[in-house]
Amino acid sequence: MNTEKKSSEKIYADAVTVLPGGVSRNTIFHKPFPHYVSGASGCMVTDIDGTQRIDFANNMASLIHGHAYPPIVEAVTEQLKKGTAYTLATEVEVRYAQHLTSRAPDFDKIRFVNSGTEAVMSMVKAARAFTGKSKIAKAEGSYNGTYDFVEVSQVSSPENWGPIDHPNRNPLAFGTPPGVLEDVVVYPFNDIENTLNLLDENADDLACVLIDPIPHRVGLFAATDAFVEAVYAWTRKHDTLLVFDEVITFRTTYGGAQQNYSVKPDLTALGKLIGGGFPVGAFAGRSDVMSVMDPNESPLRLPHSGTFSANPITMTAGYVAMQDFDQNAILDLNELTARAISQINEAIKLADVPMSISGLGSMFRLHPRRNAPESYREAFQFKEEKAVMTKILDHMFYKENIIMVNTGTCMFSTAIGQQEVDRLSQGLMNAFKANKAELNEVWDRYHEKHKKADPKG
Ligand SMILES: Cc1ncc(COP(=O)(O)O)c(C=O)c1O
Q: Candidates 59, 117, 280: which one to mutate for ligand 1, based on the most atoms within 8 Å of Cβ?
């Protein structure tokens, strides 16, 4: 037996002595140990043990052109020589702001921050400052970053999710102040009747209703037109803002997923791809709302700053990334992803396994279900289902050398081509076949549980 330890394993032994769990972000935690990168280019990542993998995760949807995209490397290298952060403004933030606001008609003004979490948090605070109200409504199961208020009921489960007409407000982190829960209304995504009733019950207190138009953790399916329109109409009647989290979904069309709806949000949070591979967030929207941060205003309703906000490295990289992610690039990428979905659906059929796919634009998610789920509660995976999904993802990682997001999701980059898509669909077919018996078993169990919960279904 080969007893020599791999070098990633050796580094991890040191990592656990200084980082909780050996990691700086739980996302990259991987049993038995995370793999350390030696380099990456385009759609390929090489680890220090010499294994090269195709990257379909792209740092959780943030690398729209893949790794070390030459135009970004070149532009950032030039900027690095001129300095990385100043206590003065830079022209590039203005040019980039002009570019981003030109992409969506409702982006009158924009502010840059350093992460998607900060973007959502600042957007919520702007909504509160503008309306003078304190509550927010967010979808059950939705991941909107790590601000206490938007974390509520992010991972609700059958044991604690409560009735669908009044989903429980479950804290995510131990020690969440009870006051946080009191100021959050949890609504069932795409369920118009129950959502409007819940909003009505809190009509005087809601600063904003937060919608991610294609929420990844809810199940990666789109908010229906009827749902968005109904919520929009409700907010107009009650002096409440409609705010979108497009941290991931801005990739789906030139002006974000909001382009697909007849009504537009008052504010939108952005992140991930708009940083060109560097830490970023932004929030954009109505001039009158954004003026709560305007230092010329008195009183200043929302003092807002950030040491590294709009830093010239991120601005330079993001501007290049988004200029190159134009209408044609988006159409091509969405078309390639649609082909991947169709090839994987074919693999599901050939392997004859109870699997399905949801998603649109340049992303999709696999589900251990015969039909793609249409609600968070349908998409929710029990322990055994998660275990078989982990086996499939481990098969992809170790046997096929393909990196996917740990929810069974792929987030494409323009560095991916047909060849990689072929490897992905073939790899998945192998993974499905290798786990067929278990997939059938968890499906049967799920089906039984589901029938018990809803005898009509
Ligand atoms: C929809 C959504 N909103 C907000 C965030 C938070 O972004 P960040 O990780 O940059 O703080 C994420 C991150 O995954 C996200 O997916």
A: 117
Could you tell me if 135 and 285 are in contact, meaning their C-beta atoms sit under 8 angstroms apart?
no
Among candidate residues 306, 324, 342, the one where a domain is terminated: 324
* Confidence at residue 445, expressed as pLDDT on a 0 to 100 scale: 86
Residues 340-391 pLDDT 10s = 999 999 999 999 999 999 999 999 999 999 999 999 999 999 999 999 999 9
CATH code of the domain covering residue 431:
3.90.1150.10
Annotated catalytic residue within 96, 143, 319, 376:
143
Distance of CA 145 from the midpoint of ligand 1 (Å): 5
Q: Are residues 176 and 53 in the same domain?
A: no
Main-chain phi, psi angles of 136, to 5 degrees: -130, 155
CB 139 within 8 A of CB 195: no
User: Catalytic: 36?
Assistant: no
Decide: 212 in ligand 1 pocket, CB within 6 A. yes
Domain extent, residue 342, equals 35-64+326-453
pTM (predicted TM-score): 0.96
Please say which residue of 271, 296, 324 terminates a domain.
Answer: 324
Catalytic residue among 133, 135, 138, 272: 272
